[in-house]
Write a structure and sequence with these properties.
The protein has 334 residues and is of the alpha/beta class. It is built from twelve helices and ten strands. Helix 2 links the parallel strand 1 and strand 2.
């Protein structure tokens, strides 16, 4: 009887192998704090489709959106420890280990699309050193996901100048953004993206900042009235993979994943302008008002924010100084 069962099992195994019906060799679980309908979620779907198609089913990608598994603040540790294979995190979540990552949140530094593209070029003078530093935390950066410029949200009136934010509690999502709020007279409160809706709804904060695409994906028009277009920082998310897991993959699988990551990187960057335009349109259609700063008002914000630069240099040290110098060189070529 044992021989009969053994023969049957062997025949079944050979049959599955011959027909290609065996299970996927590699499973990539990805944690995302945003809804799947967000442009970051859609970008992950592009990656998933590319990987599964080009691996002929040998690699399966599972996406867990809306912070089902981990909040944004928990992603670096979860991926770095190997608790999950992949995750999407705001770049600023690494500021504790790598203060220089907040170069992208220096007020009004990357003030054009061309500058942002130069700064986020793979292997470039700004992104390159940051990717290398993050590798030391146990995670490899597969690609960057553009999230657009930071804007301000408020309820009853727009935030035209720093005087309008004085004394207000403001939702932020990073240390340097908090320094910015402090410099212009507000009181920063660190709140993760998945919790900001409730914070606005309950009055935990009076104002906040996010990317305009987040206003659309999170329906923030239900709890806030005004968008002030400051574009005072460049918001970047990064897609991480556990380095030990990565090194254990077959070379062919790494090649497929890397190619899909590069395609996803370029796609989200190229689509950012249209994504933001659609988000502004959706916000207006749902009752929000959008305020554009005058040149004088913009200058008032820039002047008030200057102390943030020294704070960044003090915390980020030589690495931060080198990146700031690289950013200024990029700006000079404009």
């Amino acid at each position: 009887m044992k021989t009969l069962f053994a023969g049957f099992a062997l025949a079944l195994a050979l049959s599955l192998s011959a027909t290609g019906a065996s299970a996927a060799e590699t499973t990539l679980r990805i944690t995302l704090q945003l809804p799947l309908k967000s442009h970051l979620g859609q970008n992950l779907l592009l990656f998933k489709d590319e990987v599964e198609k080009n691996s002929n089913g040998e690699i399966t990608v599972e996406i867990y959106d809306s912070a089902q598994l981990y909040k944004d603040s928990e992603v670096p540790q979860a991926v770095g420890s190997g608790a999950i294979e992949m995750g999407v995190a705001s770049l600023t979540r690494f500021v504790g280990e790598i203060p220089a990552v907040d170069i992208f949140y220096m007020p009004f530094l990357f003030n054009s699309d061309s500058l942002v593209r130069k700064a986020t070029t793979k292997g470039g003078p700004i992104r390159g050193p940051l990717d290398e530093a993050i590798l030391d935390t146990g995670s490899r950066v597969l690609w960057w996901q553009a999230y657009g410029g930071a804007i301000m949200l408020s309820k009853d009136a727009p935030l035209k100048t720093p005087a309008d934010i004085k004394g207000k509690k403001v939702r932020v999502f990073g240390k340097t953004l908090g320094d910015f709020v402090t410099a212009v007279g507000g009181a920063p409160t660190l709140i993760s993206g998945s919790e900001q809706y409730i914070a606005y709804q309950n009055g935990t904060v009076d104002a906040g900042m996010t990317g305009v695409s987040g206003v659309k994906s999170r329906s923030l028009w239900q709890v806030m009235d005004w968008i002030t277009v400051t574009n005072h920082a460049d918001i970047e998310f990064i897609v991480l993979v556990n380095e030990a897991f990565w090194e254990g993959l077959p070379e062919a699988h790494r090649a497929i994943i890397s190619a899909a990551a590069d395609k996803a990187d370029a796609a989200v960057r190229d689509e950012m302008a249209s994504i933001e335009a659609a988000a502004y349109a959706a916000a207006k259609e749902n009752g929000m008002q959008v305020y554009e700063l005058s040149p004088a008002e913009l200058q008032a914000w820039k002047t008030a924010a200057q102390p943030v630069y020294q704070s960044f240099l003090d915390s980020a040290g030589p690495e931060g100084a080198a990146l700031l110098e690289a950013a200024e060189k990029l700006s000079a070529t404009q």
